[in-house]
Amino acid sequence: MVASLEISREVIFLGYVPEEELPYLYNGADLLLYPSLYEGFGFPILEAMACGTPVITSNISSLPEVAGKAAVLVDPMDEKGLKLAIESLISDKNTYVRYQELGFARVKKFSWERCAMKTLDVYESLQ
To answer: What is the pTM of this model?
Structure first.
């Protein structure tokens, strides 16, 4: 599709990216477009938010719960909706900054320590 649209100079397929290099990509990106059809959790949206990169993601699966109101939620099958979300985020500086700030606040609600504590709470409640 990239070749047929003649956008080969604008699209780069990276393949596997080592975890330690991901922050460079998130920090260099204008936004993260993550129109997943199925997710177990959605770490990439939190990783992008932690880097100040606004997120557009799916309004299905676990992603709305993870993103909260800190991301633009769109039907992943709606091409026009995705296009409009991208255009509105890129063209409106106030909206862009608002989603950066919401992302920074949202990502603070997640940590491995908190995950461990919640898991422990569940185990303890079963005794």
So the answer is: 0.87
